[in-house]
Amino acid sequence: MFSSPGFNRANAYRQVGAHAAVENASPHALIQMLFDGLFQCLHAARGAIERGEIEEKGRHLGKAVRILQEGLVAGLDLEKGGELAANLKLLYDYSVKQLTQANVHNNAELVAEVINVLQPVAQGWKEIGPQGNATPAA
Known about the structure:
The protein is mostly helical. Helices cover 82% and strands 0% of the residues. The protein has one domain (26-128): Four Helix Bundle (Hemerythrin (Met), subunit A).
């Protein structure tokens, strides 16, 4: 899209900064970053659906599903997390199914539903702060 040398340098700088932030983050902060990225993708996907931007919708929903599956679900410790971790896995799996349907049917309401379902989980995670359990259950 943009090919100016200044844009490429700025983009590289942002990528290095993001990489450093991830490397130095606590387990709690990493989960918070996943939630932040997830909600950015979900809001962008909903907007893309409303504007009829099919390619953008697919890109954002695909990234949201990857965050759910490869980040949040993969980060669950089902053994140590017990019922809470099992319930979170069910919630994340449900969200993936809803986002798949939203993608197939261009349904912004399903994306909004996922936002509404996951918002309390993300808020709860934010409220426990880094003083919570050092081993993330979410």
